[in-house]
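Box 3.1 — From sequence to structure: Cinnamoyl ester hydrolase
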Amino acid sequence: MARPCPTGRHDEHNVYAENCPCRALLDLISNKWSALVIGMLDERSAVRFSELQAALPGVGSKMLTQTLRRLEAASLVERSVYAEVPPRVEYTLSELGRSAAVPLGQIRAWAEEHIDQVEFLNRKWSEQN
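Predicted structure (token representation):
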């Protein structure tokens, strides 16, 4: 699955190679909270922190903050600060983030469609609830 690096910074891009920086990106986008944040931002134009947190039950403020910062650092999310009182901050997907939203949306849909076939997770979920 190796691909030549178009920027010339590496010989190739190969997520199976131990030292390939693609692994860090794969780690970021395969994270549960990253995938859910990207999905929420894909469904809405601009979202405030409190709206994201309300739409994602179970995510704490610290985890959401860390996730948004990582996604922003990777250029997947854009953060806009408006000079108002109190200051208003909104998050949107960048063009790069919108391209990641497509396969992540397919993964979320696959999970919803096939969860009933995954017995181990069903048992674990039942034990917790």
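Summary of the box: The mean pLDDT is 89.
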